[in-house]
Amino acid sequence: MRIRIEGGRAELDTALDALRQALDVRSVSRPYPGRDLSTRRRIYLDARVRQPETTDPTTDHRQNKADTP
Question: Which of 29, 34, 44, 53 shows a CA-CA span of 20 to 30 A to 15?
């Protein structure tokens, strides 16, 4: 998905850190000036939803030796 975020430099840094914790952020654009010529900037992210990490017992080879018959 493509996400646009707008704000001041500190806001963008904080938001980007939070989004990186929640999503798999694949790329981040350079900052573009706000269209209203203010101090606001905008950046674009290419991200995807993280897949939950699951352990498949049939492929998990970390089995305890004591558990093996």
Answer: 53
